UniProtKB/TrEMBL annotation:
It comes from Geobacter hydrogenophilus. Keywords: 4Fe-4S, Iron, Iron-sulfur, Metal-binding, Oxidoreductase, Periplasm, Signal. Heterodimer of a large and a small subunit. Its main location: periplasm. It is found in: Periplasm. One of its GO terms (molecular function) is ferredoxin hydrogenase activity. This is Uncharacterized protein. Belongs to the [NiFe]/[NiFeSe] hydrogenase small subunit family. Its cofactor is [4Fe-4S] cluster.
Amino acid sequence: FASGSAPPVIWLQGAVCTGCSISLLNSAAPAIDDILLNTISLKYHPNLMTAAGELAVTTLTGAAEAGAGEFILCVEGGIPTSIDGRYSIIGERDGEPWTMLDAVMELGCKAKYVVAVGTCASFGGVVKPSEYTGVRRLAEVLQGSTKNPVINLPACPVNPIVLVGTLVRLLTSGVPPLDAWSRPTEYYGTSVHHICPRLTTPMVQQIGVFGCYEHVGCKGPHTSFTCPNLKWNNGVNWCIDKTNSLCIGCSSPNFPSTPFYGK
Ligand code: SF4
Ligand code: F3S
C-alpha cells in the first residue's frame, strides 16, 4: 500500500457483510487506486491485504505501535461481545484468540481518530438483533476512551463519497462538525425528504411509478442523509430517483427495526 509517509489507516471488520468495503472500492473521485497509492497508507484491511495468519496480526500490531497516536482506525461492522467476543476472532496472539472486541478496545484508545464505517458499526444495524453474539456499536464498546469522538458514518453500505470525504477532512483539518449522533453535519445535516426532488410531486399509492412515496412508507422524512445530493454509483442514481423505489432509512439509528415497506 501507499508510501510510508502517508497517514496510516487500520481497518478492522467485526460482524459484517463486507458491503462497506465494497463501497470503498467503488470510490470514483478519487478512485480507489489513487486513494491507496497517494492519499492514505492502508496498513491493514482483511479483504484488501495479501498477508494472512501470523504475518497479518504482526503487521497490524506493528502498524499500531509505529503509528501510535497518529493512525486512523476504521471499524466496519458491529462488535460481538458475547462469550468474551469470541464470535469474531481476528487471529491469535501468544497462542490465544485475539478477538475483534480486544482489538477495538486496544487500538481505539491509541488511534488519533476512530471512524465507525456504515450503520452496523455506528448503530448496530442489521447484525445487532442477534441475541447470541451480543453485538454492540463501536461507540458503546469504546465508551469515551478515544482521543476524539467516534465519528459515525451510517448508511447500508457507507457512501464512498462520505467515507473518503471524511478521511480527507480528518487529515486536513481534524474532526468536522458533528450532530447529536456524532455524524458529520456536512452529510447528515438534512433529511432525505427535505432535499428530495419528489417533494412537490403527487403522492402515489405504489412504488415503481413516478411520484412521492410518503403514503407507501418512504422513510425519507425521518432519515438524515444527503442522498439526493451525493447520489450513488458515481452520481448516477439513488434509491428514489432513476430507481423508483423508496428510502428505507438505512442511515437511521433504528435501522432496520421498522418495516422496509409500509409504516
Ligand atoms: Fe420525501 Fe420520500 Fe416523498 Fe422523497 S419520495 S419527497 S423522501 S416522502
Ligand atoms: Fe439509505 Fe434512504 Fe439514502 S435508504 S441510501 S438513506 S435514500
